[in-house]
Amino acid sequence: MLILKTTALFLVTALAEIIGCFLPYLWLRKSGSSWLLLPAMISLSLFVWLLTLHPAASGRVYAAYGGVYVATALVWLRVVDGERLSVLDWVGAGIALLGMAIIVSGWNGEA
What we know:
By secondary structure, this protein is an all-alpha fold. It has one domain (2-109). Helices cover 76% and strands 0% of the residues. It has helices at 2-29, 37-51, 58-79, 87-105. The two termini are 12 Å apart.
């Protein structure tokens, strides 16, 4: 149950981070409005707050979060940017998620 709950929280966290970085990208590279910076700031603040909700030490949280971030970024690449993902993209995402699951499974002593 801890892995499912943590994965869901990491997914929301990854979306907050990606959105918070994507909006300034739109402003800087795609001539977007400077008003995009306000929701970007809010999204990145949400990202930071969400990382504090985990029961493990911060270094473990960041390491485990990285696996979900990799997978989420690849799905973003497909859905938002319209890029096709290769088999190796999917394999890499699977390995990253497996790494996250292994790290989180060791949190039971800290929770």
